[in-house]
Amino acid sequence: MPAQNVPQIRHYVDGEFVATAHAFADRSPVDGRLVANVCEADEATVDRAVQAARRALAGPWGQLDVQQRAAVLHRIADGIEARFDDFVAAEVGDTGRPLAQARSLDVARAITNFRTFADLAKTANTELFETPTADGAGALNYTVRKPVGVVGIISPWNLPLLLLTWKVAPALACGNTVVAKPSEETPASAALLAEVIHAAGVPAGVFNLVHGFGGGSAGEFLTRHPDIDAITFTGESKTGSTIMRAVSDGVKEISFELGGKNAAVVFADADFDAAVAGVLRSSFTNAGQVCLCSERVFVERPIFDAFVAALKARADAWRIGYPDDAEVDMGPLISQGHREKVLSYFRLAVEEGATVVSGGTVPVFGDARDHGAYVRPTIWTGLPDHARCVTEEIFGPVCHIAPFDREDEVIARVNDSAYGLACALWTTNLARAHRVARQIRVGLTWVNTWYLRDLRTPFGGVGLSGLGREGGRHSLDFYSEVANICIKL
Ligand code: NAD
User: Fold this and answer.
1) What count of Cα atoms within 13 Å lies in the side-chain half-sphere of residue 181?
2) What is the pLDDT of residues 393-446, one digit of tens each?
3) Whose CA is nearest to atom 15 of ligand 1?
4) Whose CA is nearest to atom 40 of ligand 1?
5) Over the stretch 192-216, which tens digit does the pLDDT of each residue have?
6) Has 423 been annotated as catalytic?
7) If you measure from the C-alpha of residue 163 to the centroid of ligand 1, how many angstroms do you get, rounded to a whole number?
8) Radius of gyration of the chain (CA)
9) What is the pLDDT of residues 55-109, one digit of tens each?
10) 305 CA to middle of ligand 1, Å?
């Protein structure tokens, strides 16, 4: 029975906020408190959303040119800016992350996503070829960009608003209509986004939002719907496989941003303090719940012991606590369920023979946070490369540090992974940086930094880490259908 006196989060379908009979609880991972009751979409509600999106393609939205659509996107960005603190509160309520992070990263990036893709869409290029013909008059071949149609967007909980808007913005900029399903763990900021889009005067049906779970719920209803033209998904690799099977009958366009087991490589010539600070950030930011986080750290042997000691000192001092405490570095994991998974890896690491250098435990606060989903930042050494804790994505504040001796050796060890999303290299040798970066089998390599993003650049992974690229013109290509027109002169 849903509890009273907490907000109800509803769907947004065909320009209206609608409730469904069944609801589920949205709890804070800080202390287990109920923050909202969330309506779960049944198949009929998802169908209404998809049909509304299809009708909207043929309505006034379909008549707008790119300049007009860009203006709509800027209005949405203005709307998020005007309700900035509401978005921060929604994101923090669902995730428990430090307020400062929600302000500087999540909500700030949502605004940037809309503004960037509004401006980028205006630069979308097309092609033109002059083609000789037998009569000498010739022909012109040129391409036009059309919307793909109705785009289904399925997003995860780890950076809820950032990752949702990363897809909604380019989809709308290219003239598509959208049915979005945020994670069941983090529905609140998506619900606010629907309010902002509504207030921005976006025509009914252009943006629809349905809440619910994955298999047997809104996620599956959406991916199996025959009237969806494309699916863009961010989440776990095994969910990606399930979705791939679901969309195969309809041969729909797909873009997948999936899991990672990313490496950081620290060469002995690196700026030591910068590398320690960088790996601290890349392993423990957002409690390790960023797909780009480094869970495998390789350190060149001459500096291995010093590096492990320095990272341990920084991790031991990492402050865990309430989101509104300005001193706090890290909040809880997303849920008790996810903490159970992370704790199972803490136990497994010991069984596999790891040395626990730091953490590996649950902090005890003696207050409401003991009902939350906290763990300590954790560092292991001593595991072989094939250990499960070194090969499987854990998605928590955890890294394993291993020594290496040679450049070719570390490249082979980094590449010996089913995943291939990101890598961070730490070296002051420029030639080495170039040489190694191009040999690492990933979609994104950073040198002497981590998670420095320019939204014009391609984003995506290889292997189990994904399919396709988004970002910059790659997003414009995914969210547009390029059609060729041939005119005989
Ligand atoms: P998840 O796969 O469990 O869920 C993601 C979304 O998919 C949720 O909205 C969920 O309800 C939905 N879903 C689940 N099963 C479904 C099904 N059968 N059909 C349709 N929808 C379904 O992932 P998560 O736990 O929310 O997120 C964490 C994962 O996301 C990690 O593996 C992380 O690496 C990955 N991730 C990747 C990127 C990237 O850009 N590569 C970014 C962020 C997160």
Assistant:
1) 31
2) 999 999 999 999 999 999 999 999 999 999 999 999 999 999 999 999 999 999
3) 214
4) 257
5) 999 999 999 999 999 999 999 999 9
6) no
7) 11
8) 24
9) 999 999 999 999 999 999 999 999 999 999 999 999 999 999 999 999 999 999 9
10) 36
Residue 217 is encoded by which pair of tokens?
């719920």
CA 66, 56, 470: angle at the middle one, nearest 5? 50
- By CB atoms closer than 10 A (0-12, 13-18, 19+), residue 252 is buried
The tokens for 239 are 């969910």
> Which one of 168, 211, 232, 234 would you pick to mutate in the ligand 1 pocket, going by the greatest count of ligand atoms within 8 A of its CB?
234
CATH of 262-454, one of 3.40.50.1360, 3.40.309.10, 1.10.10.410, 3.30.2270.10: 3.40.309.10
Among residues 220, 257, 352, 393, the one annotated as catalytic is 257
- Residue among 208, 206, 252 nearest 233 (CA): 252
Measured in Å, residue 379 CA sits from the centre of ligand 1 at: 25
The verdict on whether 486 is a catalytic residue reads no
Closest CA relative to residue 349, chosen from 307, 295, 403: 295
- Closest ligand 1 atom to residue 243 Cα is 19
CATH placement of domain 3-258+465-488: 3.40.605.10
pLDDT in tens, 443-466: 999 999 999 999 999 999 999 999
Q: Whose CA is nearest to atom 35 of ligand 1?
A: 235
Cα–Cα distance for residue pair 404/136, rounded to 1 Å = 66
Residue 425: burial class (beta carbons within 10 Å; 0-12, 13-18, 19+): buried
Catalytic residue among 39, 174, 291, 389: 291
Q: Where are the domains of the chain?
A: 3-258+465-488, 262-454
Q: Is the pLDDT score of 293 beyond 70? A: yes
In the predicted model, is pLDDT for residue 1 greater than 60? no
Q: What per-residue confidence (pLDDT) applies to 113? A: 98
Domains 3-258+465-488 and 262-454 share a fold: no
Nearest CA, atom 34, ligand 1: 259
What residues flank ligand 1, with Cβ below 6 Å? Answer: 154-158, 163, 181, 183-184, 213-215, 219-220, 223, 234-236, 239, 242-243, 257-260, 291, 393, 395, 421, 461, 465-466
Compute the distance from residue 242 Cα to the ligand 1 centre, in Å: 11
pTM of the model: 0.97
Q: Write the CA distances from 460 to 258, 261, 308, 319, 402, integer angstroms.
A: 8, 14, 30, 31, 26
- For ligand 1, mutation pick of 94, 158, 211, 213 (most atoms within 8 Å of CB): 158
Burial (Cβ within 10 Å: 0-12, 13-18, ≥19) of residue 409: exposed
Give residue 363's identity as a one-letter amino acid code: P
State how far the Cα of 167 lies from the Cα of 471, in Å rounded to an integer: 9
And the tokens for 95? 């995730």
